[in-house]
Amino acid sequence: MGPLQMKRAMTVAGSDSGGGAGIQADLKTFAAFRVFGTSAVTALTAQNTLGVRGIFPVTPEFVTLQIEAIAQDIGSDVVKTGMLATRPIIEAVADALSRLRLGPLVVDPVMVAKGGAPLLEPDAAGALVETLLPLASVVTPNLPEAEALFGSPITDRNGMRDAAKAIAARGPRCVVVKGGHFEGGADSTDLFYDGQRFDELPAARIPTRNTHGTGCTFASAVAARLALGDGPWEAVQAAKRYVTDVIAASAGLSIGHGHGPLDHLALLRRD
Predict the structure, then answer these.
(1) Fewer Cβ atoms within 10 Å of its own Cβ: the N or the C terminal residue of the chain?
(2) Strand pairing partners for 187?
(3) 8-260: what fold?
(4) What's the pTM?
(5) CA-CA-CA-CA torsion sign (228, 17, 71, 128)
């Protein structure tokens, strides 16, 4: 019997000390899909389910060193980016990913934490659009992030379509505009756009306070499925099913006193 071969996924993101989002959520999600996860930490955060208390960005040079260390030994079949914090970090990450062969890129354009704390410096959004989006296979903005990238409010499905087209024009192969921030309604519907067609991904809205890290988890699930060989549409469908299932499984979870985390490994325990 030969050595066990595992697909590899790298997360380039911030650390969540509370364990619900950031690289912690990414690595748990990779594990749930039986993909080997590596990480390049862009920032330390002091946070819990109640909010973010502090952010300490890593130097761009050290972010690059982490990515290069992984590339030169372990390699990667896919890369997922999350919280990148500053313009110099975004530029360093884009430069490293342009030079190194690390598989397709999933960009989660993290800008604001669940509790409202800003996670991206004001001058950094332009760098994300200019340097990182053109490298992306899939970009996964929620509604506030899509509005920031689009430059206009989004109030309905037509607005989601317009935003997806505008974001796709920046270079990514596929865009998923997530609709979970629309208030009310029985469904939470995301919109997929690959430059030619639109597809909707509806799911029943689950009443729970345990939604911290949902965006990180979705993007990481997309990345894991890409590493396993799915195309973008198949990967996004699988990620939507996974996130919906783990939100449902997390409804009774009691961790912390605010926006609780997802139970990322619930499906493994069920299996």
Answers:
(1) N
(2) 204
(3) UDP-N-acetylmuramoyl-L-alanine:D-glutamate ligase (3.40.1190)
(4) 0.95
(5) positive
